[in-house]
Amino acid sequence: MPNKNYILEMFPYPSGNIHMGHVRNYVIGDICARYHKLKGDEVIHPMGWDAFGLPAENAAIQFKTHPQDWTLSNIKNMKSQLQKLELDLDWDRELATCNEDYYRHQQELFIDLYKAGLAYKKDAVVNWDPVDQTVLANEQVIDGKGWRTGAQVEKKNLSQWFFKITNYAEELLNDLDKLDLWPEKVKIMQKNWIGKSLGAEIKFKISNQNEFLNIFTTRPDTIYGATFIAVSINHPIVKKSLSKLEIDKIKKDFNEIDDDKEKLGYKIKISCDHPMLDKKIPVYVANFVLDTYGEGAIFGCPAHDERDYEFAKKYSLPIIKVIDCDDDQLPFTEDGFLVNSPILDGLNKNDAIKKIIFHLKKVGIGNEKTNYKIRDWGVSRQRYWGCPIPAIYYEDGSFRVLEKNELPVLLPYDVNLEGKGNALLNLDKWRKVICPLTNKPALRETDTLDTFVDSSWYYMRFLNNKLDRPFDVNQINESLPVDKYIGGIEHAILHLLYSRFFMKALRDIYKLKVDEPFKQLFTQGMITHKTYKTKKNEWVMPKDVISRDGDLYREKSFERVEEGPAEKMSKSKKNVIEPDEILDNYGIDATRIFMISDSPPDRELEWTDEGIQSSKNLIHRIERYFSQKITPLKNDTEKKVEKFVNDLEKNILNFSLNKCVADIYTLFNYLEREKVYLSDSKLSHKIIICIFPILPKLSLSLNKNLFNSSKFSKWPTVRAELLIEDQINLPVQINGRFATTIQTKKGYDKDVILDTIYKLDKIKNKITEKKVIKVINVQDKIINIIIS
RNA sequence: GCGCCAGUGGCGGAAUGGUAGACGCGCUGGUCUUAGGAACCAGUGGGCAACCGUGGGGGUUCGAGUCCCUCCUGGCGCACCA
Predict the structure, then answer these.
(1) Strands A42-44 and A4-9
(2) What SS3 string covers A620-658?
(3) What's the CA–C1' distance between A727 and B75, in Å?
(4) Is the CB of A610 under 7 A from strand B?
(5) What is the mean pLDDT of residues A43-70?
(6) A225: Cα within 13 Å, side-chain hemisphere
(7) What is the mean pLDDT of chain A?
(8) DSSP character for A12?
(9) Which end of chain A has fewer CB atoms surrounding its CB within 10 Å, N or C?
């Protein structure tokens, strides 16, 4: 049975044209896929389109077209661009998330999630663009304004669909440890996002009432230092003790504050009893308390928390030290010994935490508690161009999620996007339905799903894109996880976390045997290019820049131009290189090799004309080399080729693709320096197979010309015995500093070689009149002579 | 502020604790020319030299670019998360 190897690059959004970033991404994946195919693996290497989303709607309005037409024509164009790159992709697995074929199955998954209690509806605060009458994603809000309308974004309470990702917070966190082939950086980002903290929940009794206020704290040990309580403006207790007018006034003040770090608070009527001491402490509404974290309420211990300290100073609240420190160290947030805390005095932080929780538990007003920063995933979008959520609403306000046999809910084609808000809202023809179960009139859900839902399971659908169900359980168990997942670091949290959640949720629903979707993650770096600007701050395209006497000018106008640092390619800075042009001018192989040559694939790659040119020169050089007549081998030729195969393979497997390029240069430098021409020999065939993953076109044409064949045998097995070098250059150090080298054979006799070494001029000079104290011989590696 | 990563020639970058600078670009000189974004040859960390060199300072080690401590600089991420 061949090894299954699922190699996947993050599928693109069909924006219109592929860019160099795509090219780099897909070339890296393609090299892997081709290598593994040569190894005889059963490679899965699909490609598809992340085809729903906002840009299509905006483009439709701007260009008077339809999101679907725009998207499908972009897909067509981008597919032909990708095909121009001749990537080794399984096009028969292709899918586009905007096709009924895909999203109808997603609606089925939605129903499953709903039935499993993992999808639900609740009121939530969202970013509302008052001009477009629609919700904006967080990333579409720039400096508090809508990116398209420039209007001040409002916070609005809307009924929204959510996925219960918090159910999996603990597992999503713990399983990060299993992902040993993920970049540490991404795992840390996810860990921080999940934001687990251990602490305690403490009930504070509201004075003179029989009610309690819950707070979460990671520092229950500082309870004796609590001098106030602060709650968020949205805390239920605020509604009870303040009028709507007062609340609105406070909200306004909070919003208007310039520096969002400045503390602001209003004391409210109620106060709480201190749980450990016979005293009352005041309750404030404070702008720095988050209503989305913990209980939306805290106790303030000014002596040992920077925020509480700042707040207490501003409102002249008492500051009681409960951890031993100097007064000028306040607020003191480190570990120390407890003071002023009757039952905790003398304990350190951890012991005090244990003891106070034990006590609070006993008294029945507290417990240990684990809190997570991660919140449930809001998936509702008030947008037309997305997957319709399969639900209907009755006139009484109740709703029903559809049954699977009522699917699909198709997205209607005839819509008016010029109107305000979600086009589906105004489409009564589509919206109004009679519920087949109750015969009652109902309205369709007009929200569509966040497009991150689409990309959370596409790697499952690729396994069988024609199945009449979302996926086949056996196929998932056999073919997942994806072995190598390659894409940009910008998806470190959202997409990768959502996909992990989906995998686990669907595992539980469908009894799958897979816990994680992506076994290995590789994040490629972006492509940068120098930027050019005129004195008038106009960006100039690199190809319009000419050099005269060391100065740079814009070709057309002969204005002086300044060269700026290499930055991420962007249309606004005009430093974009179009893949189509490069492919036309330099060809596929030169483009491929440049994508991997100048820096490690996970780092930035600076686009340079010299770089792409020298890549092309290398191709020509290899062609020229193989056009030479065959010559006899040198003694070490076989060894050099074997080392090449070995190094190249190691470097492909490590994603050290820049070193693969160095390996190719090293090999041909040797062959040409030694004037060993291999022509149509066996060794040639070996070399030509090995360069195939990186330079497929060249490799195929050499195979045709030299061997009149269009097929390769498998990737050669390295003969370990040929990798051993018995002749070595042994370095000799004196007192740990390099002195000289000596030619010898592996397995030399230490005493014999030392005799020779002592006679070498470079050594003799240095050790005469000195005493050799010690000789360190690391056999076959180095000799270090220690002298007095 | 917190966290993470990184600092090596003119540049991009190589170096299981063992000859620092592989490989490429650029540059210098030369060769050949159907005068080209071509190819080939030689050279290219600094210094006349002894020697000195991997951001600075300490340490561990026979031996440190690599390990430890500390500081500096840059990049990325998070940012009142109680």
Answers:
(1) parallel
(2) HHHHHHHCCCCCCCCCCHHHHHHHHHHHHHHHHHCCCHH
(3) 44
(4) yes
(5) 93
(6) 28
(7) 90
(8) P
(9) N
Neighbouring-strand partners of residue A125: A157
Query: Helical H runs in A374-493?
Result: 428-431, 451-454, 458-461, 473-479
Specify the nucleotide whose C1' lies closest to residue A263 (CA): B80
- CB < 7 A to strand B: residues 623-682, chain A: 656, 658-659, 661-662, 665-666, 669, 672-673
For residues A460, A461, A467 and A471, what is the CA-based torsion angle, rounded to 10 degrees?
30
- Is residue A447 within 8 A of residue A389, CB to CB? The reply is yes
Q: Is A364 exposed, middle or buried (0-12, 13-18, 19+ CB in 10 A)?
A: exposed
> Are the C-beta atoms of A191 and A374 separated by less than 8 Å?
no
Distance A736 CA to B68 C1' (A): 20
A218 Cβ within 7 A of any nucleic strand B atom:
yes
- Which bases on strand B have an atom closer than 7 Å to a protein beta carbon? 3-5, 12-16, 18-20, 22-26, 37-41, 52, 62-64, 76-78, 80-82
The token pair that represents A476 in the structure block: 């998932």
Q: Which pTM does this prediction carry?
A: 0.92
CB A365 within 8 A of CB A373: no
Q: In sequence order, what are the residues at sequence separation of 6 or more whose Cβ sits closer than 8 angstroms to the Cβ of residue A381?
A: A135, A137, A447, A448, A449, A450, A451
Rounded to whole angstroms, the Cα distance separating A757 from A732 reads 8
Type of residue at A340: N
Is the sign of the CA dihedral A758, A762, A768, A774 positive or negative? Answer: negative
* Residue A701 Cβ < 7 Å to strand B: no
Q: Locate A284 and state its tokens.
A: 């404030």
Give yes or no for CB of A517 within 7 Å of strand B: no
pLDDT at A33 over 90: yes
pLDDT value of position A487: 93
The Cα–Cα gap between A607 and A614 comes to: 12
Q: How far apart are the first and last CA of chain A?
A: 64
**Residue A565 dihedral angles phi and psi, to the nearest 5°:** -70, 160
Mean pLDDT over A294-310 rounds to 91
Check whether A745 has a pLDDT greater than 80. Answer: yes
CA A363/CA A205 separation, integer angstroms: 13
**Cβ-based burial of A781 (10 A; exposed 0-12, middle 13-18, buried ≥19):** exposed
Is the Cβ–Cβ distance between A459 and A480 less than 8 Å? yes
The tokens for A201 are 């929940």
